[in-house]
Here is the input.
Amino acid sequence: MNTLDIVSQYRPLLFSLAYRMLGSVMDAEDIVQEACVRWLQQDAGAAIAAPKAYLTTVVTRLCIDHLRSARVQREEYIGPWLPEPLLTDPTATPADTAALADSLGLAFLVLLERLSPVERAVFLLHEVFGYAYEEIAPIVGKSAVTCRQSAQRARRHLEAQRPRFTPSPDQHEQLTQRFMEACEGGDMAGILDLLADEVTLWTDGGGKVRAARRPIHGPSAVARFLLGILAKAPPGHAIHLRRVNGQAGIVTEVTGAPLTVTVLEVAAGRITGIRIVVSPEKLRGLSGQSPWDDRANNLPLEEESDKRSTIHDTHDL
Here is the structure.
């Protein structure tokens, strides 16, 4: 197998790892490209006996370095930070869909942000990609024992934050469909009926378009915010059910370009979390363009979001 064939063989694996590490399609592609360039510069790979291990090591270390620098940028990020959404195979089997949602869903990627870069790498390599701790140790420059301890800490931390009962892919899709229909119909009662008491909504505008800069809490406040967005939706917009990061999601488009991507977090038959990505930079990769390029600052901004740390229903204040 020649050098280019090796690069092509492992590129999907490398991207899957880099995207989960970084939560950014563009950054993941840049990291994978850099790793491949380094591989191609190694005399056609003649001096490297284990190309998969070499490429995985390079990608992991580049991601760790990137995350360490990105933490400073995240501290200065305007509003909530959400991962860049990724459209996934709509024909995947229920088993594949469930597995993808567990390791690729936006809620999961947000939880990974709470881990240190090395913890994240160890956890993903072991839990998602099936690497043994002895294989992970040289990749991250730690002992196998330390890697095992890091993975156990990460697992406990993530399990404490994840819902105890998660819906099946079909249940999640059905609830997403009902939510989409209630929003399209401007049905306040219908929306409220789907929301859990502890529901929270996050919007990521990346500082490029208007969005709530604080999380919005409580059914009433969330429903009002959603209807406010829909009331100002541009003429000719279309709302579609899509497979986003391995699970059902909602994509709003204008003339074929994505305007928003919405993904729901569900527990016990109710919506507990709503994540809406409106950042043009994070949407452009879905189609190569974003209507925000010509329509900046049209998403309604909850006025109180800049005055309080969070927005709550009035009975929560």
User: Anything to note?
Assistant: Strands lie at 195-204, 216-217, 237-244, 247-254, 257-267, 270-277. Residues 131 and 193 are 43 Å apart (CA to CA). Residues 288-317 have pLDDT under 50 and may be disordered.
